[in-house]
Predict the 3D structure of the following.
Amino acid sequence: MPKRFFKLTDDPYISGRWELGHPLDLEGRKLDDPWQFRIGQRACLNERIRIPIKIAGTPLDYSHAAFSIPVVHARVASLFTAMASDDVQLIPVELDTRTGPHFILNATRLVKCIDDAASEEVRYWTPEDGLPEKTGTYSSVAGMRIDPSKVGNAKVFRTWGWTVALIVSGDIQEALEREGMTGTRFTEVTGTGSGP
């Protein structure tokens, strides 16, 4: 049976859910580089991080802070540690809640596997766009599909050129659903069907 992979996002359609804000240092200053948790490599931190609750509501096991930074409850962190310890960095964060320890889930692998032909639409930055540092990377990916043969043994990763996507293997997707983890939303990125 071929491997299946899913884009993991936070589910915005959960009624009454909490919303997390911008990551801060312990003195309340916004982090200089919040993007470091979305580039597919280990983050180098010298400070503790606090994430404020922007809108109070029902706590979730998986949710995004500002910049779509994945924040997970210790239950989710344990699952990722057990199933994909080589692919993730779990960074403790302080939240204004008593629901248990939370972590930033940082995928430490970057995989060049987007299947341009199978995806609904892809666009690349060109020299004419005036952003030479982005030339040759994706400016847009709609209906993304990946080529599982290019993934190797990775179970959690960001996609090269379009690091906004956090991808998990089918066994991780199944485990998260089986354990009833709240806040997750999955879109399959293997095969040829289109999803949300």
Summary: The mean pLDDT is 93. The helical segments are 74-84, 170-178. The chain has one domain: 5-113+141-188. The radius of gyration is 17 Å.
